[in-house]
């Protein structure tokens, strides 16, 4: 086994470069992480009507997300059971059946093997079609429009897997006004390749609050929603900036927690309509969500490979591994379904100039991930672990601010400015996955207790 | 005007446009970004949609929609100017050190001339592009596709009023797009 | 006819031919195959020989012989029409989903004009081509080489009477040739 | 060892995807298959005169096929014994000696090391030139114009290796009129790369009678010799369509067996000359070949990597491995040496539009092999074996039809329409090669018996 | 001379130069090296500097200096002639078997005409090049960049008096440069 | 362990192809050779002033060569200690500090971690900056302008590592007139990729006196300094041509040894100025250097990957491994600092047309290395070792000629014309490095003796 404990030493705050550049460890990750963890697959609105399908990925593999005749959503491995042909080579569309172009086996929208040429003549009707349908994920969960899947039936249900992190995902999927799942995605999923290990973006979105210098150029150029700098949120001056991590789950976020009596921000001065819209939403949200209305998730990572931006550009990104040295990013952009067209357009423009390969902010992240990875591959470099000491030991359980008790383990970076608490939390969980033989050993203690009851 | 004379007029215009596009390419490849910005009209639209793999007959779904869906680029002059400004900070790491870029522009055709060949005010120009980028040691990108430009004649000469970039890729095989097409 | 006038005539013809080839490329890249077929004469020859590595001085053995040996393509209009028909079935899997293709045509030169520049009936045109193909997710092919076309003036305008494609490859580095050059 | 029994389960009719996508198994194949089995190298007419040479491949490696001064044919590893330089970098030509461009060692057409610069001065004439000639194959066999080679001297002779499959190869190499080795090859060997494991084409040509849907588009476009559909052979309506496999050899074919009193086909109506020619040949063949004149091999595979098409486009293809995920195909096209020019041209045109990368038929095969392979690489996909159950157990020994006893194990697919009998036979043999330490264990029982006598 | 006439003169010259460059490319791609040499003036300079990655604002350090520093090429006619002679020996192993090469020349612009358009004696021509090389079985190189040529009118017609080759690479990704740009 | 003794059999003069093409052996080389041996990094003149830096390579890894404020030269791994980012991505320049673009850690020219954003706030000043400076090489040596480095502190000092080979390096680094380190480098380091294992060029420059045929075409074209053939040195006709190797060190050279009363050459007739210059230097050198003035190193290799050409084109080349199948060459060109401009230009022109990827001589070498490597990768090729028998056993210790006693083990090839003595010496040392667990076992006996005293 390529992975060995010791590569991750969180007492010293050191992590070996091997886990990023070693190819054997990478192969183990495919089995131990991507075939066992919950992965984001897409959005219900991509398959709005029965018969709709959209191709997605889970780890290295192509999957089909579709809605069957009775409206139920499925996720299947995109590979024919006969000789493995990729049965669906379109990014999206609508169909009644997936017919394999090699020998013509066809599968229903529910994955069942419905058509087998010469079934009677050549198979004498003896092929057990029930056994040879498309490989379906072991577990599927549609949550407020988002679709998640897992290959391991021993894994806990999605919401249990999320634990209290659910609140943060809610803040991403609900409308800005707090309306239950009030979001929709903009058309078009961005897909592009980055020459680095998938964990570079994963740790970055887990809450790397330290890489300001990366973005200094865009701050100078100024692309913020109010046209000034990259992101501007006056109301946050009074807020606490927190690193919030769920131990034993591997989820973490950088969020702002507003005081009870926070002024409602006056952002987006660039456009009155937009400004008014957000102002109104702001108020509505606080009313609707009560205490949680004070929480503003900036960025976060749901273990292992799903990231979100909670404010603007509001989006969900997945880091698909493409070998130890390459990552394929897919990103979906979210807006309030009920928002006025002008608001959607305004946000869309901002999203495009901020995110993705043409995004003035992320361009520099990708440059750094690329050459950080490249410069870590050599035999000498590998002898020198990365440093994750930042604000080590400063986190607290049950962090409270102005009457709000924050779940999990929190590190207040309002004054500390930055910490690597979230990153340590991510890799702690990563190591557990690499070591555990099964979900037996992976289920977080609280859940096990629960189960025991 | 004799047919031949008209043909010659057409020829001269074609050459004029071609020359404009080649000089534009020089400005980009020589990193003279501010001069390049000056070639864009104030109301310029710079759009590069994303492309999907769709079934035969469903071509309408191939491209993401302008001003509706997400795109690689969908910009006006303001953002383009900010992009230039970012590069010129000298700390836009994605372009530090700067890329070595060549724009090959070919198959230039005038698809539409308005109001008239005699007094051309706007021209719709189609071409193919090949953008070669090489950075740092051996990092290399090759981007090939089609372009549809609307050039408008203004006081200072021709200006780019609209550029549609059709890149022949689905998954973008370049880590970032820190350059212009 | 003055020398200058003749030069201009030559220029106009060159542009006319160039325009023809660019528009042809558009038809191919825009998958307007039937219109493309209409540009071929009834007796068109479409030939793409294979190439061998041979010793210096044995160049005569380099290419497989037309109508004698095996070739990548050696076709008439009938087969080309069938190829188009196959793509248009929508179940030609090798082109489902359709490829994203760009034809870059460059170095266009009129090598021979018959019977005369004044009344050109056939023109032998040489050029270089770069065909970029991208399919599905990241499948990519780059094919570069030379082309020799014989264009013939017919009622409807110029037509392709013969195309010789010289691809700069020995072992073909593309799994299939489901497109035209 | 990467290969392990269990990957091939022919009782269940299931084969693991590992054998197609695993790189360690691929490396084992190079030693166990390609360095021990008989491989097709080329055609005698490629080296017609003494001094002629043509470069070919055996597995991953380049070899030189040449004819020496006394007219004998040789096959050598195309690598200098001194420092490995590829001594011949031309595809074909004529020479008296192969001189290495690095230090000038030169080798005769018989492979002997004939020239060593400074042999006296630097080697004091002590270099044992006899030991350092070009590496020659252990066994060579020229059969009716075709040239075969084998690196293993323990392997059985080629004809013994073929066993009764020889009759089918005869039908490919003899003239259409049954004339002994009456074929020649058209100029030019097609060479191209496909992104899939070499076993995809190998199994396809072993007799995949099931992939009609792959070729529906070309059937619609119609490119048959009579201009109608892809292939048309009216006379075959009365014939039996058979899957014929030689157990313990790994050779198999899809062939038609005509009834004794079969009408002679009236094909190629497109061209009278061609039609007449084949009509005449047809009759001659039945006369000459007697019973075997009734056999019409459509497609077949000589284990492991040589395939043939027995009718039109009559050709021989070799699948050269180029890593686990890529294959280089070489294809030679055959016509009757004595056929009128018009017939040769007619066939040539048909071959070109039918076969190879520009072939309207094979284009779709390669698309399917490409994405069947690609979609089988992931960790989840690898858990799901391919299905080879088709018509399992329906084969018979000593199949007989209208007085003709077919060798080996036969499955009549005239009514069954299709079967995977041939494919199972191919992989059964493949597994034997992967498991056997030497030819001791590989020699088919009948041969061993023979040997015992 | 009317403006239009002058424009036409310019056009004719542009075409003349373009044609010259295309025919030159033919000579190289058809391995007619001696004819190619005849296109070079006796005092020709053929220079291809190396490129460094430098900090924004330090562009002056980007290129190695002509006649000062090391370069990929910095030649006169004598060496170029010897290079041709070497290939023609038939035992220049790096070109045995010979490479399959295509020169794509695009974005041709006349940057400077001296002494005058009316009587052009020397022309500074800028272009982009794409050189595609394929050898033996699958060995493939793609070299892209800019060229600045000084063409001089001599008795026999245009000649190349100077060629500056700006390749868009830092670490050269080609094992050898046995061909001309 | 992939490497195993037996692969190198110097009694038989045979070396397995495995050591060139096997990827596991390649990975071992990175640890055992490149992380333990002395490697050439650059020239002091590249970092003339304090603050100057130039990026270089050691094995696969990027390093920074720079001169600190007090003028001392350093070599650092070009990778940030925080997350590995390549801190310097410029080929050369001048700076006061290396600031990492990812999170802004900055390092002084002495490698010290001098800047850590939020050091107080986020690290509570507890980060031990002394431990997290740039990784510096264990040993550095500046010798007559050349800069050498070593990752292993257990390695002997550079001059001890060189042993008596130092005299040959002197002849490369001193002026042609023998002036101590009288050389400078021409601007621009050539860097290019070759598709072959790094040992092909290494053995070639160790003294492959046998590959004349490789260069026959350039000899015919004639590019010599006197315009006639490739290299012409009339005065050498009276000299002895020697293969000189230092056993247990792995350094070797092909050099000419002139008789005491050697005529001074009349070369460079092409240019009087140049001719006069060299004539004058020639005389001066013999005066200055005495006996060693008679030694003319043609080519040589300092184990493992630094090569030099001692005459024209005077240069130093390093073979950087880039995977088992690729090598990146870096080459520096040397001229006499005090030489007249015309001489420098004359030499520069010659260097450019002779060396490097556009060099009419080396082009053919690279072609041979490329295809010698490629043709050695297959399973059958690997069974056949390369032959290194040439002039085996003809070397002598204490070779003497006209009163000059040559160090190490020498083989006189004046009459033998060629030998593989140097190559055997190179691989003998290579095997020692692959086998030795530490420098304990690697230190040459003479040095150990020394040490013992
Ligand atoms: S691979 Fe899908 S039916 Fe055969
Ligand atoms: S490699 Fe062939 S002679 Fe040395
Ligand atoms: S990687 Fe350099 S500061 Fe973080
Ligand atoms: Fe960032
Ligand atoms: Fe088929
Ligand atoms: Fe050499």
Tell me the quaternary state: heterohexamer
Gyration radius from CA atoms of chain A, angstroms: 23 Å
Strand line-up of the largest beta sheet of chain B: 2-1-6-5-4-3
Q: What is the overall shape of chain A?
A: globular
* Helical residues, percent of chain B: 10-25%
Main sheet of chain A?
10 strands, antiparallel
Mean pLDDT of chain B: 97
Give the N-to-C terminal Cα separation of chain A.
Answer: 36 Å
Alpha carbon gyration radius of chain B: 18 Å
Strand content of chain A: 15-25%
The overall pLDDT of chain A, averaged over residues, is 94
Low-confidence stretches of chain B: none
**What percent strand of chain B?**
35-45%
Number of strand segments of chain B: 6
Bound molecules: FE2/S2 (inorganic) cluster, fe (iii) ion
| SS elements, strand count of chain A | 25
Can you tell me about this structure?
The complex is a heterohexamer, with three copies of chain A (453 residues) and three copies of chain B (181 residues). Helices cover 26% and strands 25% of the residues of chain A. With 453 residues, chain A is α+β, with helices and mostly antiparallel strands. In chain A, the strands form six sheets. In chain A, strands 13, 14, 15, 16, 17, 18, 19, 20, 22 and 25 form a ten-stranded antiparallel sheet that branches. In chain A, strands 6-5-4-7 form a four-stranded antiparallel sheet, with no helix packed on it. In chain A, strands 1-2-21 form a three-stranded antiparallel sheet, with helices on one face. In chain B, strands 2-1-6-5-4-3 form a six-stranded mixed sheet. Chain B is globular. Chain B starts with a helix and ends in a 14-residue tail after the last strand. The A-B interface holds A 89-93, 186-195, 214, 216-218, 220-223, 328, 333, 345, 348-349, 351-353, 356-358, 360, 362-364, 366-368, 370-371 and B 48, 50, 52-55, 58, 61, 64-65, 67-75, 79, 82-83, 85-87, 89, 91-94, 136, 139, 170-178. Bound molecules: FE2/S2 (inorganic) cluster (3 copies) and fe (iii) ion (3 copies). One FE2/S2 (inorganic) cluster (FES) is lined by residues 80, 82-83, 85, 100, 102-105 of chain A. The site of one FE2/S2 (inorganic) cluster (FES) has 9 residues of chain D, from loops.
């Amino acid at each position: 086994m390529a992975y060995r404990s010791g590569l991750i030493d969180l007492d010293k705050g050191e992590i070996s470069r091997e886990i990023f550049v070693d190819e054997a460890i990478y192969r183990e990750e495919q089995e131990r992480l991507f075939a066992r963890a919950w992965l984001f697959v897409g959005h219900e609105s991509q398959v709005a009507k029965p018969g709709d399908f959209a191709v997605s990925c889970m780890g290295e593999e192509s999957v089909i997300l579709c809605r069957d005749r009775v409206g139920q959503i499925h996720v299947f491995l995109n590979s024919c059971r006969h000789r493995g042909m990729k049965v669906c080579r379109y990014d999206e569309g609508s169909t009644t059946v997936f017919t394999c172009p090699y020998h013509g086996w066809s599968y229903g929208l529910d994955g069942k093997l419905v058509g087998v040429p010469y079934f009677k003549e050549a198979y004498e009707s003896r092929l057990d079609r029930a056994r040879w349908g498309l490989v379906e994920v072991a577990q599927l969960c549609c949550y407020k429009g988002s679709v998640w899947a897992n290959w391991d039936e021993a894994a806990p249900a999605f919401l249990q897997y999320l634990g209290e992190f659910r609140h943060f995902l809610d803040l991403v999927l609900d409308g800005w006004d707090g309306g239950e799942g009030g979001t929709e995605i903009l058309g078009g999923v961005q897909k592009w390749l980055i020459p680095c290990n998938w964990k570079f973006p994963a740790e970055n979105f887990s809450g790397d609050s330290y890489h300001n210098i990366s973005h200094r150029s865009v701050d100078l150029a100024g692309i913020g929603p109010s046209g000034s700098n990259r992101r501007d949120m006056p109301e946050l001056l009074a807020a606490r900036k927190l690193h919030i991590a769920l131990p034993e789950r591997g989820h973490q976020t950088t969020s702002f927690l507003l005081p009870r009596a926070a002024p409602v921000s006056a952002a987006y001065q660039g456009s009155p309509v937009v400004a008014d819209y957000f102002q109104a939403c702001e108020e509505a949200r606080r009313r609707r969500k009560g205490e949680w209305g004070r929480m503003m998730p900036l960025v976060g990572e749901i273990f292992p490979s799903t990231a979100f931006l909670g404010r603007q550009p509001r989006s969900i990104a997945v880091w698909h591994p493409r070998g130890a040295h390459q990552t394929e990013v897919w990103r979906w952009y979210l807006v309030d379904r009920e928002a006025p067209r002008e608001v959607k357009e305004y946000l869309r423009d901002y999203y495009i100039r901020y995110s993705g390969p043409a995004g003035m902010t992320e361009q520099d992240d990708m440059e750094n991930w690329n050459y950080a990875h490249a410069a870590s591959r050599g035999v000498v470099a590998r002898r020198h672990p990365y440093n994750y000491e930042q604000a080590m030991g400063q986190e607290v359980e049950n962090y409270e601010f102005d009457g709000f008790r924050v779940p999990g383990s929190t590190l207040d970076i309002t004054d500390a400015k930055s910490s690597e608490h979230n990153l340590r939390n991510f890799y702690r969980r990563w190591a557990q996955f690499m070591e555990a033989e099964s979900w037996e050993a992976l289920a977080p203690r609280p859940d096990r207790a629960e189960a025991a009851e | 005007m004799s047919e031949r004379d008209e043909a010659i007029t057409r020829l001269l215009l074609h050459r004029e446009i071609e020359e404009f596009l080649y000089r534009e390419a020089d400005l980009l490849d020589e990193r003279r970004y501010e001069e390049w910005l000056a070639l864009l009209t104030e109301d310029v639209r710079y759009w590069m949609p994303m492309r999907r793999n769709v079934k035969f007959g469903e071509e309408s779904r191939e491209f993401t929609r302008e001003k509706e869906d997400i795109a690689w680029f969908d910009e006006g002059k303001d953002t383009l100017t900010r992009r230039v400004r970012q590069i010129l900070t000298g700390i836009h790491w994605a372009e530090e050190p700067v890329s070595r870029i060549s724009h090959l522009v070919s198959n230039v055709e005038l698809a539409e001339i308005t109001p008239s060949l005699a007094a051309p005010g706007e021209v719709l120009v189609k071409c193919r592009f090949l953008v070669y980028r090489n950075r740092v040691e051996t990092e290399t990108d090759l981007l090939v596709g089609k372009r549809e430009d609307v050039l408008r004649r203004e006081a200072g000469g021709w200006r780019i009023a609209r550029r549609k970039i059709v890149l022949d890729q689905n998954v973008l095989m370049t880590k970032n797009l820190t350059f212009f097409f």
